[in-house]
Amino acid sequence: MARHLEIAVIDDDESFRVALVESLSSLGYGSSGYASAEDYVRLIGSNAVNCVVSDIHMPGMSGLDLMKHLAAQGTTTPVVLITARSDANLEAKAAVAGAVCLLRKPFEINELIGCIEGAVKD
Amino acid sequence: MALREQDLVLSSLPPSRTQQQLALSVALLIVLMALLISITGMQQVKLAVIDALVPLFGMAMFVSDSITAVLLFTQFSIVRSRALLVISSGFVWTALVVIPWLLSFPGVFAPHGLLGGSSSEITVWLYTLWHAGFPIFVIAFALLKDAQPAKRLRQLPAATAILSCIVGSAAVIAGATYVLVVFQAHLPSFMIDAMNFSVLWYYTAAIIALLSALAISLLWIRRKSLLDLWLMVVMLVFLTEVLISSFPVSARFSLGWYAGRTCSLLSGSLILIVLLYEITIVYARLIGAVRAQSRERGARLITGDAVAATIAHEIKQPLSTIITRAETGLRWLDRASPEIDKAKEQFAEIVANGRRAGAVMDGIRGNFKKDPRIRTWLDVNVLIEETLTLVHGDLQQHRILVRTEPHAGLPQIMGDRIQLQQVLLNLITNAIEAMAGKQGLRVLGVRSEVGKEGNVVVSVADTGKGIQSQEIDQIFNPLFTTKPDGMGMGLSICRSIVESHDGSLLVFPNSPEGAVFQMVLHASTTTALASV
What we know:
The complex is a heterodimer of chains A (about 120) and B (about 525).
Chain A: E1 6-10, H1 14-26, E2 30-34, H2 37-44, E3 51-55, H3 63-73, E4 79-83, H4 90-97, E5 101-104, H5 109-119
Parallel strand pairs in A: 1-2, 1-3, 3-4, 4-5
Chain B: H1 17-39, H2 53-79, H3 82-104, H4 121-144, H5 151-155, H6 158-182, H7 199-221, H8 226-246, H9 255-333, H10 340-368, E1 376-378, H11 380-390, H12 392-397, E2 401-405, E3 413-415, H13 417-436, E4 443-450, E5 456-461, H14 469-472, H15 490-500, E6 504-509, E7 515-521, H16 524-531
Parallel strand pairs in B: 2-4
Antiparallel strand pairs in B: 1-3, 4-5, 5-7, 6-7
Helix pairs in contact in B: 1-8, 1-9, 2-3, 2-9, 3-4, 3-6, 4-7, 4-8, 7-8, 8-9, 9-10, 11-13, 13-15
């Protein structure tokens, strides 16, 4: 592990969120979970993270809404989107929104790490 | 939109309020005009003799009454009511009797007419046949219209019935004309001279008026449909015609006589206009129904896709957790000094999420077993017929011949109508797709029969490319598909539905080519249940 990164995990599915946070921790990353995009926006405050991993489809603010919100605030934190849906046009939507990657569940942790490390270059 | 048969059959269509008001206004307008002409004494005013008007009028009557007859005969061929046959014949009668009437009219084809020799008596006799004949047909219609269609008439081909009516009417008119021509010297006289009528005519006109009045009252008493309503108006116009052209004085080419001819034209075309209008409306309604049906079908197929997508989503959630946990567990174990306890935590979570995936599956299965109350008794043959209607467009588009062999004595089964229809729709759609890309004969065979132990067996057979023997074993697997854009859920969902009905779904090769899907539904056990 070359460097320490803080990663926020946003997913309304608790079991997956906890699993992902524990997985990232076991790899030596600093990781915190949020049950909704609203929670993330409210709690994160000035403690900026290095990367956000967010589910797309959530009740309330979606992953894409969150990206718009962050962009409006001028935040440049890279975002990796994840989804369990099979809709074909999600890649395009994610790319337009400026997401680093779109990963379809189930994915391997190495794919996610590749995306995160690629996004946080410096 | 549910379209009932009686909404499509004009002879049984009830008149709407607007139509009743319109009919009443037309009737009132005509009676008022006639009264005005009568009371002011204008009826007797002599107008110019326009000889060309008579053949024009005759041709118009012939054409409009013939078309009306054709339209009414078409209605008869649908509902086979004796009353409709009678009223159609009435219009055939008025159309055909115009021919000798025109031939005999003085000054049309010859100065004294072609048939009448030196007198124009025959013209009046033919006019009497025409105008006394039609009310009699209407009276017969009114008396017959509530009767149940006779069994004999149902078995008789419609064309035979229609043809015999036309031939019969033509024969009677030809015979009567012949008799009139031969015996014209011995006939009582209707005319005083070429223009004015004798007393006999006034009695005859009174009889025609009475017949029309009788027809109106019979129609009024037994009125029900749109056709009844407008026939009443027609008879009223008929009555007005006879009165206005005969009373107080009857003379050719008087204002009254011209008014009478106008009424005649009106009565001839009224039913025609109403029929054409109503046919267009019914046609529009049919198009609406067909569109609604295809929309309904589209909605059902989309639902299938949506259900499959939801299932996929629900399964992927615990699956993703399991994979991530397993990877983490492996990593804890993979260290120089393995962290056994942390790995154990991960495995415990894997077990919990495996259980969660199982619960999702049970939930889906539970959906198929839901509320037994929506199960109803249903006739599989009706279900087959309805499903084929849904795919009618596809079948035509791909030029597929449909052979249905419904078993007449099929016992009813207890089942979920929508689900079973989805199965049939799926099997038939698959069959269509299997045949669509193939040359040669395309036959879809759908048959129902009573199998062993009184089971209801439905077979859907196609002459498509068939199923490879190595594919037969996996064809019901959820992920198996031979279609480039298919997801393979169709047949596996079909099998789940049939199995939730305690039935079975089988497949075997069709001979000489294609495949047969067979749905076996247990009728005997459910029948026993119902009798408890």
